[in-house]
Amino acid sequence: MGFIDQNTIDLGSGNKILTLSLNNPETRNSMTREMGLEFKKIIDGLIEAPEKNRPRVVILTGKNDIFSAGGNFELLKSFSTKDYETNKKLCSNFIIFFYP
């Protein structure tokens, strides 16, 4: 399977190896909300796939000679406009995604 164009994450696979390449050069591959949702959709798809179709290795990398600048400042600033309970729920959902 060759590259499949995604919005901010490019996929490449072959021989049971999947490469996820962060691809948002305007923000130096920083994690935006859209990228996070796209990443979750990809991971959910891997979890739901039949075991025989799943990769054995997933490589996370960045395009344009940059891995990632980290969290996107616009996303981080948006937390300052939300109340405590909303931010708590958003952070809890984020943690549960990685540590179910």
UniProtKB/TrEMBL annotation:
Q: Which GO terms describe its molecular function?
A: isomerase activity
Tell me which UniProt keywords the record has, alphabetically: Isomerase
Q: Does the keyword Isomerase apply?
A: yes
Q: Which Pfam families match?
A: ECH_1
Annotated Gene3D superfamilies: 2-enoyl-CoA Hydratase, Chain A, domain 1 (3.90.226.10)
Task: Give the domain of life.
Answer: Bacteria
Q: Does the keyword Isomerase apply?
A: yes
Q: What is this protein called?
A: Enoyl-CoA hydratase/isomerase domain protein
Q: Native species of this protein?
A: Leptospira santarosai str. CBC1416
